[in-house]
Predict the structure.
Amino acid sequence: AAFFGAVAPGNPVVDSLEAELRDVLGFLRRLRGAGDAEPQWHELHRRGANTLFNIWIKYKPRLPDWYYNDKLLKVGDSLVQIKEYKLALLQCYGRYLQQFLSVNPDDITDDENQFKTTFFPDGFRDKNASLTFHALQERNVCIYQMVCSSDRNLQKQESLQTCFKVLSSVRLTMQVALPQQNLCWLIYNGTIHIYTICRHLMMIGQSAKVLEYLLWASVCMELSIPLSSVDYLTWRATLYTAVSQCYFDCQAGIHGEVFARRGLIQIDELKQLEDISSSQKNSETRKIFREATIKMSVMIFKRAVYESRRKPKSYYQPKLKVNLKEAQNLPWPRTTTEQLLMEMFDSSAAQFLAILEALSDSSRRVLHPTPPVPDEPEIRDVISELFFAGLGIVSGNSIKNQKSVGEKKVSGEAAVKFVKLAFNYEEWDVFDSAIVFVTNFLQAQNDPRWKKAEMELKLLILMQPLLFSRKFRHGFPVSENNTGGDNMPSVSDKKNTVRSESDSLKYGEPSHDLLILATTVFSCVSTSKQNILPDQEILSDVLMFLWKECKTGLQRIQMNGNGYFNHKYKASKWIYVLWILNEVILNVADTDVVMVAEITLRLTAILENMADS
């Protein structure tokens, strides 16, 4: 390339390289967009990978190292954007790091001196230092994304180990880069990567192990002078919130509250500095400080609302319990909980966010409803008051599309979560009333993302009579104008269709409610695109429930006769449910493999029996 002059656009070697890279990247982008619709996808993808490999081999001796290395990383970034993580790792970032032949990057996760001498022998002022940092960080991102592609729920032990190795590697890279202010971009990106991986691990019960990494990310944001400004305060508050949430997940609520109070102090100190340095604060700056303060206050409220009501065991005082049904038409604050909400938050949206956080418990699953666990009556009273206050906010405020902290309106996502929590805590009066308001909102939306929430609430309504064989009472009145649409089962529908579990078992056939649930699940999965399926946890629990009921029903028929076909009518309905389950699990990722095998084998045995009879 140097023979033709400057290594820049216009140089025939450079132009040839750019044209070939443009072609192969365009080919891979189109192929990724086609997905499974392309019948020869794997063969075409292999051809694209080979083409890229040949390009690097062809042009390496023709280009100076600085240009070649820079192009490696830029192409790697383009491949990451189209989710070609393996190709980016092997053909770009990995190829760049091949110049450090002395060690495997996976072998250095905690030795800072070895890390420096291996990857930065000429120090951090070397012109290639920033490229090396970038390659190391993006390599870790690709490894994590490849793990998620093969094991999305991180069920394998080796997947977990790889994730923690990635976290350690990202942390070490940040540790080395932290003193260099010109590498603040790497610190910021590192905190994003740590947060993303840690949130994923928190969802599967690994909060205790990820706490140290989230703490590290939070401290890095404070120690990096460029990142300690108000421009990055929203992200700092998000990291603080994640750390507090980790403590709560580990049943160390007092530490979660202490850390949230520490975060509040940090925010206040930054606010004071901002007041000194700037005589005029714009509305955007005020909004940033307000939202960050609310996030910390929510985590403080999460513990304070319960602890403020706890009494020493030796302490006795006659309990003056508020009658919530009689108080519903009174002005706020109607209860002690609402008084605390009004003292700490000045908007309905912030109060509602605090209620959701106080009720949220990572150990609870939506479709495993149980009443509050603590034996202390004061805690049960607080939970009831939280739901009472939440219902008042939902019914008294309009629901909005966008999620924003500190405004008057409640976001749609928050309202849906409130309904799920009411179901999970068996707060049926609140559930039956709130779901009407939320359903009206969902059915008025055209955006496909709200269809997912509508499916989930529909499944909750259909599961309610199956999990609890009783007539449902409705204590909180709902306006006659607030009725659900045709597509969502209404409260009155549930009253008419509730049949006790004993009726179903008595006749040996699936109940009407069970058949409706099965067909609804089939409809949700078969008519939906992958990105708007119901929540994985809810869908998995519904499928598990249907399978247990189906297995029990078929076993009962076998025990009462000499085979399925002495009870053809009863068996045919159970076989129908079993067929639905088999169809659904084929279209749902990350389904329990044992359940999948049992369903497939049982259906196969029945069909073979039918063929032989």
